[in-house]
Amino acid sequence: MNLLNDNNWQDFEHSHVWHPYAPLDGALPVYPVSHAQGVRLTLENGQELIDGMSSWWSMIHGYNHPVLNAAINQQLESMAHVMFGGLTHRPAAELAARLVQITPEPLQRVFFCDSGSVSVEVAIKMAIQYWHARGLSKKQKLLTVRRGYHGDTSGAMAVCDPETGMHHLFTEVLSDHFFADAPRPATDDEWQDQDIAGFRSLIEKNHDRIAAVILEPIVQGAGGMRFYAPEYLRQVRVLCDAHDVLLIADEIATGFGRTGTLFACEQADIVPDIMCLGKALTGGYMTMAAVLTTSEIAHAISTQPPKAFMHGPTFMANPLACAVANASIDLLLNSPWQQRIQQMEAAFANHLLPCQEWDGVNDVRFKGGIGVLELDQPVDMPSITARFVDKGIWIRPFGKLVYLMPPYIIENQDLTQLLTAMTEAVAEELRKD
Ligand SMILES: *Cc1c(COP(=O)(O)O)cnc(C)c1O
User: Fold this and answer.
1) Which of 56, 60, 149 best tests ligand 1's pocket when mutated (most atoms within 8 Å of CB)?
2) Whose CA is nearest to atom 5 of ligand 1?
3) 3-state DSSP call for residue 107?
4) Is 253 touching ligand 1 by the criterion CB < 6 Å?
5) Which of 422, 420, 419, 426 is nearest to 380 (CA)?
């Protein structure tokens, strides 16, 4: 039985349900989706939109995928959930086996949790517990770079960019960490030693108190869609080793192929001590994240008091999520994903580079399956969103950034339509005032 009817459910929703980073006063429109298939979202009014967002990096195989549906359905018949304290199950073991296989060799131990933000909390606690186990309990701070994004829970927020992360609102709950300048947007060819100077001096001065460096490898996502030189990561790895500091790679957005390699760390040929995975892990079907670490770190935590890693979510290693993650990883590895990412990058070059000349466009950049237009001014959200929807595409800008990260399965014709509609809508929006 429904409590709401076809005429009033949207009004009710609009006045009672929060949306991400939005007020609850009806100021910003939300579009009701009735179903989704492949790269297309269908709205309640029947309109179809080509999806340019992969629902925030996650739906890499598109919507309503028969293989992923079947994986969940099959798991559902045996068990939707069971606690992970004292019990285990095959789907979790299978997922750990896949993650150990596809990530760099030293990452051998896996902790499953509910969401990206929680995996960042877990990674931070892991680093601190490791140093505690090694008798260095003064190492409790993090070192990170500005313009980063690591999630919305308190521990994660404390290492997000202080300005875009609104640290001033939450001063009493956010820990005070060390922030180096954001890595310069550059390639290895443009590398200058100066680029790491600020970071180096922070780690040299404060390493006694620093448990770990945390950063997003190669691509800074929600903090500004910025791409930086692999050499920066290599230098960070060297400095971490030199100063007994762990390196946490937050691959929640970059993981599973989005930047052109399975993991962005591969582009710098470095191995982090701890890696966070989320978003595309389940092909976007269920919320789930994983933290991988080395045997050495796991051993130190497990053998020194309290002889346990102090974290354990209720829905840890949910079997439905594990089952769909296993299917999603197999689907990815058995697809020509590199080729598809290259095709996306080529299409971004074709359609976005010409926008560089436009008044009102500050920068155009793309990497793998990520295409970005950075405007001079923040977008008028309701207005530009309505233009996108009118043109049959779904894009969710933030601030000055209008960006794309389509599902990997998008076909060239749809990709062209998405990019054409996107650039037209931006052009109209820039001309309107
Ligand atoms: C999205 C994201 C997170 C947070 O993940 P949630 O699942 O939203 O909690 C953390 N780090 C990065 C790099 C992300 O892109």
Assistant:
1) 149
2) 116
3) strand
4) yes
5) 426
Beta strands in 307-433 (DSSP E): 361-367, 370-375, 393-394, 401-404
Tell me the pLDDT tens digit for each residue of 292-320: 999 999 999 999 999 999 999 999 999 99
Fold of the CATH domain 69-333: Aspartate Aminotransferase; domain 2 (3.40.640)
Q: 120 CA distance to ligand 1 centroid (A)?
A: 8
Residue 232 CB less than 6 A away from ligand 1 = no
3-state helix, strand, coil in the chain (%, to 5): 40, 20, 40
User: Tokens 């006045």 sit at which residue?
Assistant: 15
What gap in Å lies between CA 122 and CA 128, rounded to an integer? 10
322 Cβ closer than 6 Å to some ligand 1 atom: no
388 neighbors 421 (Cβ within 8 angstroms): yes
Q: Name the nearest CA neighbour of 274 among 296, 249, 299, 302.
A: 249
Of the listed 21, 25, 359, 433, which one is catalytic?
21
CATH, domain 9-64+336-432, list 3.90.1150.10, 3.30.230.10, 3.40.50.1980, 1.10.510.10: 3.90.1150.10
In DSSP terms, which residues pair with 290 in a beta bridge? 112, 277
Pairing label, strands 178-180, 141-145: parallel
Angle between helices 66-78 and 319-333 (to 10 degrees): 150
Distance CA 96, CA 110 (A): 6
Domain ranges of the chain: 9-64+336-432, 69-333
Q: What is the pLDDT of residues 173-213, one digit of tens each?
A: 999 999 999 999 989 999 999 999 999 999 999 999 999 99
* 0.90 exceeded by pTM: yes
From CA 229, how far away is CA 267, in angstroms rounded? 9
